[in-house]
Amino acid sequence: MATKTTKYHWRAHTVLIAAVVVMIYPLVWLVGASFKPENQIFSTLDPIPWHFTIENYLGGWTATGTSFTVYLANSATIAVCVVIGNVVSCSLAAYAFARLDFAFRRLWFGLMLGTLMLPFQATMIPQYTIFYKLNWINTFLPLVVPQLLAFDSFFIFLMVQFIRGIPRQLDEAAAIDGAGHARIFFSVIFPLLRPALLTTAVLTFIWTFNDFLRQLVYLSDKSRYTVPLGLNSFIDRASGSSYGGMLAMSVVTLVPTVVVFLVCQKRLVDGVANTGIKG
């Protein structure tokens, strides 16, 4: 019996290790290839850069005619603004749905959840028309302002589930002391929302930093390009030949999101586990 169990564990570990290798190899190859000379990138599947060089990074940083620092700064600006907007507005909306009694609350909540099924492509033209009439095209406003108005239903739902798990006795005790809804939210609910807020902040940052289509629709000036648009324009300028710089800038693009995820990984998992499973 022990022998069979040992064989099972050995096979299971072998399969898992093979799966890990398959999933990680493209990333390892990307990093290794970014340090290879241009003519050796596709000459072998070996990810190790035997002829190490940083020319791809030095040349790729300004290969599009605009410093990659500009793209990083634009992406960081938009991501930080969107994170702040989502954390504040979605938490307020979630408190209203979870704690306040108002007309047709269930109906509005159902309609809000229904928007989760609408892809951006379905609302792209109406939104673009509105922002065009507001003269917001080619600015960061279409990418930031909606998030200040509780635009993301997923995070509202996430926080509603978390707030429902907070005992109402805390609200009632604060109300007995004379606290209104604003004070109850900021003094009682908001501090206890920390796991859900962190989850919202991390996911919002990663999704916004890596967003391509929405930024492609609204931004046309290269000085306002974000990292995904910068990589896209890099490919256009390279015309399919200068892959070294493109791969190097792809590695640079991965760094912020990977760092944020690794730093917040434990709390992120805890936040997800403590939110989506409550009824």
TrEMBL record:
**Has keyword Transport?**
yes
The main location class comes to: membrane
Coiled coil ranges (UniProt) are none
- Limits of the ABC transmembrane type-1 domain: 72-264
* Domain of life (superkingdom): Bacteria
Q: Which UniProt keywords apply?
A: Cell membrane, Membrane, Transmembrane, Transmembrane helix, Transport
Give TM segment ranges: 12-35, 71-95, 107-128, 140-163, 184-209, 243-264
Location within or outside the cell: Cell membrane
Q: Which InterPro entries match?
A: MetI-like, MetI-like_sf
Query: How is the protein disposed in the membrane?
Result: Multi-pass membrane protein
The family database entries (Pfam families) matched by this protein are listed as: BPD_transp_1
Q: Family per UniProt?
A: Belongs to the binding-protein-dependent transport system permease family.
Q: What is this protein called?
A: Carbohydrate ABC transporter permease
